[in-house]
Design goal:
This protein is α/β, with parallel strands linked by helices. The protein folds into three domains: about 80 residues, Udp-n-acetylmuramoylalanyl-d-glutamate--2,6- Diaminopimelate Ligase, Chain: A, domain 1 (3-Layer(aba) Sandwich); about 220 residues, Mur-like, catalytic domain (UDP-N-acetylmuramoyl-L-alanine:D-glutamate ligase); about 150 residues, Protein-Tyrosine Phosphatase, Chain A (Alpha-Beta Complex). Helices cover about 30% and strands about 20% of the residues. The strands form four sheets. The chain has an eleven-stranded mixed sheet with strand order 8-7-6-9-5-10-11-12-13-14-15, sandwiched between helices. It has a six-stranded mixed sheet with strand order 16-17-21-18-19-20, covered by helices on one side. A four-stranded parallel sheet has the order 1-2-3-4. It starts with a helix and ends with a helix.
């Protein structure tokens, strides 16, 4: 498009792309100096121009440059308008379903992705639609990534998008300008306070998703923050245990390999046999089903597909013929870990061996209680390393064991591969090895680099060696 078609100006020059990072600039791109809360993009204008930017949109006076400079009051708002116009407003042509919450976003988003045809998934497990697959570092990428993808989705016949929306994405304005046809919240517990500082700020940030929702808002009525979220919603549908919900569940039976329960919707009962185990997945599946029926999908047709759902890295049972169970799960928040351990300990087994850690550069205050919770709810724990970033992994481990110094049922093995190997090697018949924190993620974030690493691959490698 021409620059004058994108913004009110007299410059009749071609624009081939929209970028907010000079690192990604290609010849012909428009560079917009958005406010990121942590960085002044005006510092990178010369870099963008040297890489081929055709024009720059700024907020500050920067003097003359060899390309057109356009000054605006709010580059963030301008960016949202321009990138949507450049790609012909793709989200207006898609059924946008947003999922937020402290725990369960990935599961609910994946359930919807698997139940719907012509659907794309964006979230912790990457970006998936048709034959397109890509891993992302952020649960919810920014508009410079998603809007071009939405445009491509429309071109390729995609009708629905199931998208995880993290609190940090809302805080850093990564979904500005997107109107969601339906939004879901799973739960809210104290988390990400390194970014939000207070629980109130965290809740308010989550609620921004519902401020941007034009259709049904699907709320968990059993969550203690239900009323706070409901204030931001226009059209509310609720799920939970109580019969006062739009969709409620009862007669739940939890097993190691399946969950059986009944949902009640519009006074009709539906029997569910789900491959997703644990009580929290009863909530997750209920949320997904309620969202889709509220959008007009047939409940019977959806339930018929439930038996085929598979979610990588969420209570994933890895069976290579060993006489004990190995389960990999993404649980990393205090609430998620508590619910997971509660479920595992309700099963029949010999001993529970847990491999766990905590990411670096996150809220240190929750580490002692997290370590205490794991170590006091298992037979043996191995504390390891998980995305330490610029922190010393041993400092993180020491924080985790600070409340259990006198306990004898744990050890520290910072090499994550060796920690998984040790857990597998000490497991005996009918034991459960539980590896938590990373799920199916395929990387580790170290001080100076990102390396390839996947818990599931490591489990399979060490089991293969053991079974030889």
């Amino acid at each position: 498009m021409k620059l004058k078609e994108l913004i009110n100006c007299d410059y009749d020059i071609d624009i081939t792309g929209i970028k907010t990072s000079s690192a990604n600039i290609k010849k012909g791109d428009l560079f917009i100096c958005t406010d990121t809360k942590t960085m002044d993009r005006h510092l990178f204008i010369d870099d963008a121009i040297n890489k081929g930017a055709s024009a720059v949109i700024v907020k500050k006076d920067i003097g003359n440059k060899k390309v057109p400079i356009i000054k605006v009051d709010n580059p963030n708002e301008t960016y949202v308008e321009i990138i949507n116009k450049f790609y012909d407003y793709p989200t207006k042509k898609l059924n946008m379903i947003g999922i937020t919450g402290t725990d369960g976003k990935t599961t609910v988003a994946t359930i919807i992705y698997e139940l719907l045809s012509n659907c794309a998934y964006i979230g912790t497990n990457g970006i998936n639609y048709n034959n397109y697959k890509e891993k992302t570092l952020n649960t919810t990428p920014g508009l410079d990534k998603t809007i071009p993808l939405f445009y491509d989705m429309v071109k390729n016949g995609i009708k629905n998008v199931s998208m995880e929306v993290s609190s940090e994405a809302l805080y850093y304005n990564r979904i500005d300008g997107i109107k969601f046809n339906c939004s879901i919240i799973t739960n809210i517990t104290k988390e990400h306070l390194n970014t939000h500082k207070t629980l109130e700020n965290y809740i308010n940030c989550k609620c921004k998703l519902f401020d941007n929702t034009i259709g049904p808002c699907i709320l968990n009525k059993d969550d203690e923050h239900f009323n706070e979220v409901a204030k931001h919603c226009k059209k509310i549908y609720t799920y939970g245990k109580g019969s006062d919900n739009d969709l409620y569940f009862k007669d739940v039976k939890l097993d190691i390999d399946k969950t059986t329960f009944t949902i009640v919707y519009q006074n009709k009962e539906y029997k569910i046999v789900s491959p997703l185990i644990a009580m929290f997945n009863v909530y997750n599946l209920s949320a997904a089903l309620l969202a889709l029926v509220s959008l007009g999908y047939d409940l019977n047709e959806l339930i018929a597909k439930v038996k085929n759902i598979k979610i990588s890295g969420r209570l994933e049972n890895i069976d290579m013929g060993q006489n004990f169970k190995v389960i990999v799960d993404y649980a990393h928040t205090p609430n998620g870990i508590s619910k997971l351990l509660e479920f595992i300990n309700s099963l029949v087994f010999n001993k529970l061996i847990v491999v766990f850690s905590e990411p670096g550069e996150r809220d240190r205050s929750k580490r002692p209680s997290k370590g205490y919770n794991v170590i006091t709810n298992c037979d043996y724990a191995i504390v390891t390393s998980q995305d330490p970033r610029n922190e010393d992994p041993m400092d993180i481990a020491n924080d985790l064991v600070s409340k259990v110094k006198d306990y004898k049922n744990y050890e520290i093995i910072l090499d994550r591969s060796e920690a998984i190997k040790k857990a597998i090697n000490i497991a005996r018949k009918d034991d459960i090895v539980l590896i938590i924190g990373k799920g199916s993620e395929n990387y580790q974030i170290l001080k100076d680099k990102i390396i390839e690493f996947c818990d599931i691959d490591e489990v399979k490698k060490h089991l293969k060696t053991l079974l030889k």
